[in-house]
Task: inverse folding
């Protein structure tokens, strides 16, 4: 079981804190000869697998590295276009590492804003007045848990579907936010959280939660 990440979104829908706690590695590196037996295409300025699956490489996986050098979007480490590089027989054999692309800071900001809108839509669609909005989204690989405070701040945790104790964790994170962000004289409401004590205590709370430990008084 694992907790993957934590997001804090202000009442306007802006991402003010994000922590990647655990990222499962699903990268696959193989050496290929020419011609490449996978169909690659450009998507959102990244080179991804459009057709063909083998040895753990799946449709949608992005090219992350070529010959051990990290790939930046659609370009190799020395600035060459990835698709042009891989279309040249002279560059083979070539070692390519595939995997799920890492979200950029801008993508995380955009996704947080989108969830804020979905939360509002969920509240409005409720047949009952005073709906608390979306509290959990479930997929086959993770669950997104959300807790909104009375002031509109949203705390979101992405965790393994089998992970327990997330409700208590969300309230613990709110407590940590109150103690180490709101009581910090240098912190401005609704602004990004940059506080070392907040980071330290949040990481400790995540470790306790992963071990299914209780959050008792003073913990």
Result:
């Amino acid at each position: 079981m694992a907790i993957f990440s934590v997001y804090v979104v202000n009442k306007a829908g802006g991402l003010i804190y994000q922590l990647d706690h655990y990222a499962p590695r699903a990268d696959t590196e193989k050496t290929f000869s020419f011609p490449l037996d996978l169909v690659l295409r450009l998507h959102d300025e990244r080179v991804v697998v459009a057709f063909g699956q083998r040895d753990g490489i799946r449709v949608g996986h992005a090219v992350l590295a070529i010959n051990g050098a990290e790939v930046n979007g659609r370009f190799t480490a020395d600035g060459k276009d990835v698709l042009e590089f891989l279309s040249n027989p002279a560059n083979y054999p070539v070692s390519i590492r595939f995997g799920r692309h890492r979200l950029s800071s801008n993508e995380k900001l955009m996704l947080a804003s989108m969830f804020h809108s979905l939360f509002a839509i969920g509240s409005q669609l409720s047949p009952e007045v005073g709906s608390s909005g979306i509290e959990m989204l479930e997929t086959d690989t993770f669950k997104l848990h959300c807790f909104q405070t009375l002031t509109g701040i949203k705390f979101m945790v992405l965790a393994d579907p089998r992970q327990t104790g997330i409700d208590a964790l969300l309230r613990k994170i709110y407590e940590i936010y109150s103690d180490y962000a709101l009581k910090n004289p240098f912190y401005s409401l609704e602004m990004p959280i940059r506080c070392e004590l907040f980071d330290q205590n949040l990481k400790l709370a995540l470790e306790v939660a992963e071990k299914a430990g209780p959050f008792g008084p003073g913990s």
Observations:
- The chain is about 25% helix and 25% strand.
